[in-house]
Specification:
Elements lengths: L3 E3 L6 H11 L6 E5 H14 L8 E2 L2 E6 L6 E5 L7
Parallel strand pairs: 2-4
Antiparallel strand pairs: 1-5, 2-5, 3-4
Amino acid sequence: MAEYKAIGGKISIAAIRSYLFDKKIDKGDTLVLNLMDYEHILDEIRYSGDKVDIPVNVLGVLLTKSNDVPAGKIQIVKNEKTIE
């Protein structure tokens, strides 16, 4: 069963950055957002004047979207690296 977490406020680039630092989320991991929250992030990037690169990532962490994630929450998917 998926675990959804609140990041302590409205989903934004600043809130995501703070959460990544606070929780020590690794580069290569993925944050899954609700569709509306994901669109809000895209709008925030567009209005900042920055170029929107798809796939979207923040500090090396991929942002994706899903209908399954409740609004205002995130799901963390750890990067499962194969060690040879």
